[in-house]
Amino acid sequence: MLEVPETESKVKKTVVIIGVISLVALLLWGVTASLDTLANDRAQSSIVVTTEQGDVIQTVGAYGRLQARHSSSLIAEVDGVIADIVRFPGTAVEPGDTVIILENPQLQRDLEQAQLSVLEAKANLELVEAALEEQRIVLLNELEMITTEISLSQKELDTKKFLSEQGLVTQLDFLRSETNLKKSKLSHSLLQRRITALEKTEVAERNMALYKLQEADKRLELVNQDLAHLQVTAKRNGLLSNLHDDIKIGNPVTRGQVLAQVTDPDNLYAELLMSANDSQLVSSGQEVLLNIRDETVHGSVLRIFPTAENNQVRLDVKLPQKLPPIARANLDVSAKIIVAQLESVIKVKKPTDGLKQGSLNQLFVRNNDKFIKRDVQFGLVGDSNVQVLSGLDVGDEVLLTTNPELIKQSEISVDDVQDE
């Protein structure tokens, strides 16, 4: 028969005893902590407040971001590949400052081709002008010869007319000379019409050559502009707010692609969202307390969008020109919209949540050494205070309690409140 050693039995007993002691200590600690918590809750379940005169403000909450009222997009005006990013978001820029540099080898080839086209168009214009000048010289020379021929024919006709009258030449010779003169005059008239037509042709052909030259010049100008557009520059003063996610060195861009945004940091507005239920209380022009990184800025509701999305309604808030230095476009902000405000009225701290405007409530009001339950008519329910229409005067001490045992009573001793 096997026997359990006595030493092993003692060890097991010791472990059991230690475990029991630890469990008891843990239970005692839990009970003590619970009692402390209950005591604290009980101590905080009742407070005494004093009715006073002041302002009651009701607000609704909203959240959103700051947005730039004036912004411009940096748009790629040519195709290319990003070679360098000169400026990054958060940098102040001025008109002409380079933000991104692109490269496009095809544009260099287009430049060379455009330059050759300009030279070709200039040579063509010179060739047209030379050909037209040659035609003009030929026609003018022929016109001068015909003019001389007419003069000689006229003299010959006059001479033969005289001789014909004297009977020295035949009538046939006279008629032949007269016919030659008419031919010369007809040739002269034809040359004049050809010269007139040449003048019109000169205008048309010269204009055509000039148009081709202008077209080549314009093509060269456009290529030079495209080369200049490889440097994407800012068009206005402002702050480079962001670069698009795909703007990285080596990535391709296409003409018309938006690359970045430049915003005016001194001209911002708030784009906020509020619950659809709260939107019924909000209207244009209401004051807004905007929290920008723990700094409060006063604004006003500019407009409220008519539709709701995901049970939220969007509104825009107009802000003053002077904003905290931390203010930036796309910065998260929170806001309180003042939907109702009363000045210099009797007010008391809100006894509980869920109060309705104009409701009748029962509060414990101090009378000597007792708090006596009294009917109190509430008005506007603010964020932390409520307007008192009747039942309380300025200076009255009111017991606000959530203790169910005290709430059931009609009056409470001051000592009971202090003991609690």
From TrEMBL:
The record's principal subcellular location, in a coarse class, is other
**Membrane-spanning ranges:** 15-35
Q: Which GO terms describe its cellular component?
A: cell envelope
Top-level taxon: Bacteria
Intracellular or extracellular location(s): Cell envelope
Residue ranges of coiled coil: 104-131
State if Amino-acid biosynthesis is listed as a keyword: no
Q: What keywords sit in the KW lines?
A: Coiled coil, Membrane, Transmembrane, Transmembrane helix
The entry's protein name is HlyD family secretion protein
* Species: Pseudidiomarina maritima
